């Protein structure tokens, strides 16, 4: 569809997904791929504080009210103070990515943005 966007601009387009290889179990995967393509779903590796209120602080300082955490998983607790976390954030608008990256960097300057690293993405997601 991306190749035809100028031809279909301002027109109603319907995509029919059917066939034996598209059952109900694949819908989540199709949705995830679509969100990645539209630059609305983003994965990071962060060093996350191990203290009460840290998640609330992350939500308040990093996310916009319309953003959503869709995955939060500790990969390794490196000490009593921090743990390595893989986190997925779904944006309401793909234009918010620059601001999201800036806020994530302020929270953890050593963060890794997984979307740009195909090897890490295939290993962790």
Written description of the protein model:
The two termini are 25 Å apart. The longest helix has 11 residues, at 27-37. This protein has a domain at 39-123: Alpha-Beta Plaits, CATH 3.30.70. It has 5 helices and 4 strands. 34% of the residues lie in helices and 23% in strands. It has 125 residues and is of the alpha+beta class. This is L-threonine dehydratase biosynthetic IlvA.
CATH superfamily of the domain at 39-123: ACT domain
CATH class of the domain at 39-123: Alpha Beta
Helix content: 25-40%
How big is the Rg? 17 Å
H/E topology pattern: HHEHEEHEH
CATH topology (fold) name of the domain at 39-123: Alpha-Beta Plaits
Q: How do the strands line up in the largest sheet? A: 2-3-1-4
The proportion of residues in beta strands is 15-25%
Number of strands: 4
For the record, give the distance between the C-alpha atoms at the N and C termini, rounded to a whole number: 25 Å
- How many strands, what sense, and barrel or not for the largest sheet? 4 strands, antiparallel
- Tell me the overall shape: elongated
User: What is the number of helices?
Assistant: 5
Computed structural class:
alpha+beta
In terms of per-residue confidence, which ranges show pLDDT below 50 for 5 or more consecutive residues? none
Averaged pLDDT, please? 89
User: Which architecture of the domain at 39-123 would the CATH scheme give at its second level?
Assistant: 2-Layer Sandwich
Catalytic activity: L-threonine = 2-oxobutanoate + NH4(+)
Protein name: L-threonine dehydratase biosynthetic IlvA
Subunit structure: Homotetramer.
Cofactor: pyridoxal 5'-phosphate
């Amino acid at each position: 569809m991306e190749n035809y966007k100028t031809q279909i601009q301002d027109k109603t387009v319907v995509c029919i997904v059917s066939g034996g290889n598209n059952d109900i179990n694949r819908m989540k995967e199709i949705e995830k791929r679509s969100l990645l393509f539209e630059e609305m779903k983003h994965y990071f590796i962060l060093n996350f504080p191990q203290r009460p209120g840290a998640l609330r602080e992350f939500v308040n300082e990093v996310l916009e009210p319309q953003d959503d955490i869709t995955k939060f998983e500790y990969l390794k607790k490196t000490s009593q103070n921090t743990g390595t976390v893989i986190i997925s954030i779904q944006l309401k608008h793909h234009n918010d990515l620059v601001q999201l990256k800036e806020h994530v960097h302020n929270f953890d300057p050593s963060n890794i943005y997984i979307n740009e690293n195909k090897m890490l993405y295939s290993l962790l997601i």
